[in-house]
Amino acid sequence: THMNASPPRYPNNASLIGGDWVTSKDTFPVIDPATGTEIARVPNLGAAETKAAIDAAEAAFPAWAKKTAKERAAILRRWFEIVTAETEHLAQLMTAEQGKPLTESRAEVAYGASFIEWFAEEGKRAYGRTIPTTAAGKRYITIKQPIGVVAAIAPWNFPIAMITRKVTPALAAGCTVVVKPAEDTPLCALALAKLALDAGIPSGVLNVVTTNDAAAVGKVLCEDARVRKLSFTGSTEVGRILYAQCAETVKKLTLELGGNAPLLVFDDADIDLAVAGAMASKYRNAGQTCVCANRILVQSGIYDRFANALAAEVKKLTVGPGREPGVVVGPLINADAAKKVEKLVQDATAKGAKAIVGGAPSDVGPLFYQPSVLTDVTPEMTMVHEEIFGPVAALIRFETDDEAIRLANDTPFGLAAYLFSRNIARAWRVAEALEAGMVGVNEGLFSNEVAPFGGVKQSGLGREGSQEGLEEYLETKFICLGGL
Ligand code: ADP
């Protein structure tokens, strides 16, 4: 590897370590999923460069931690403004490497930037406490301090927001960070890092290591004792590996893992609201979000009406490359993802599910799948137990509230859940009974920077966004002042 003096223009092709843009002879391609064409190559870095990034983050930590929250806030605020000013550029880059429609990419830049803005402000409010004493000669105080060097491993489905949701609370708290972006979407991460430097984030405070060997880089990040905290968003399978690898150095962890979100539609639901909620929750990002409704549980009295109304809306969805105007459903991220969706639908239809819309790959291109609605889905089908991560709605019938709650909770996952009912008592009872970190009541979209995002059970540990999201990067120190 060698260092370049001047930062490259993005689309970017160099990693950022200690304020230097690092290139390598060993590179891997970034592919536009809509066309299959290579749009850039980025460095394929390994253990040595990961160590160098940790060195840089460790070296930068004392000065960054010592800055006042207000000084850090001013820099983060500038980053927010620069990112916002670059919305169009970033959105084009995102659609090129990730595939989502441009309208969604623009919305994600705003969503991603909202975390920078929020944590710039919230960093100023990392309050400790004074605790009433139990002994006359003593006083009790707690203070909040940054944990130290943080590693952030990000997924490809939200190439900007999943990075800012981890990085900005860490930076606001006074931590320094090494980011490993997903191999499918490194360009947005590198562009964000470039804009962070422009905003005045000091060398080494934010580092980005691109790699095609996530396991090798991940192992170094987990095993290095100087990394005090790991924040990961991705599959439960990989989350378990990282959890185990972090045991040796007893790292703090935030894990945002897989979901299997139930969306419950009761007989007394406002059907238009329920359909709109299901559409928003299911088909955004071509169904590739961990809070997408994976199982749509519909009470028998409203089942047929709901299925038909949903089908009518789904038929209107335009599939195509994300850069084309009017497109609402883009390609899936890669061949494995497309194969998985196809297999899950084949399994379901072979076991008796009916595709009332779609049910097959789209002829737009190899990675496109038709927006689909399947009825008569039952627990024998694999898609009831696994994240579909594609534009396929699975409708399951239920009779009673108790049955709905039992079915909804019958999963090791517990990230998002949704319910639609006009009866406030029922809505409240069911919301309390659902084993999930987040519940949307008559609402299919709820992620924002001020609300705690996260899961229970095997969907993860900790929360991102909100006050809780800052807390994840702070240690509480108790100081006992004696001898008074
Ligand atoms: P998905 O199935 O959504 O692609 P993954 O969990 O495979 O989710 O990927 C999420 C992130 O985890 C990506 O940045 C990926 O490179 C990274 N990753 C995958 N395997 C490992 C591993 N063994 N160690 C560390 N990171 C990994």
Nutshell version of this structure?
The chain has 484 residues and is an alpha/beta fold. It has 14 helices and 23 strands.
What does this structure look like?
- Belongs to the aldehyde dehydrogenase family.
- The active site is at 256.
- It comes from Hyphomicrobium nitrativorans NL23.
- Keywords: Oxidation, Oxidoreductase, Potassium.
- GO terms for molecular function: succinate-semialdehyde dehydrogenase (NAD+) activity.
- The longest helix is centred in the first third of the chain and has 21 residues, at 102-122.
- α1 (47-66) packs across α7 (214-223), α2 crosses α6 (186-199) and α3 packs across α4.
- It contains 14 helices and 23 strands.
- Strands 15-16-17-14-13-19-20 form a seven-stranded mixed sheet, sandwiched between helices.
- β9, α6 (186-199) and β10 (206-208) form a beta-alpha-beta unit.
- The chain has helices spanning 47-66, 69-85, 87-98, 102-122, 161-173, 186-199, 214-223, 236-245, 271-283, 303-314, 335-350, 401-409, 424-433, 466-471; strands at residues 2-4, 15-17, 20-23, 27-31, 38-43, 130-131, 139-146, 149-153, 176-180, 206-208, 227-233, 252-256, 261-265, 293-299, 354-357, 372-375, 392-398, 413-414, 416-420, 438-441, 456-457, 460-461, 474-481.
- By secondary structure, the chain is α/β, with parallel strands linked by helices.
- The chain binds adenosine-5'-diphosphate.
- The site of adenosine-5'-diphosphate has 14 residues, from α7 and α8.
- Adenosine-5'-diphosphate is lined by residues 153-155, 180, 182-183, 214-215, 218, 234-235, 238, 241-242.
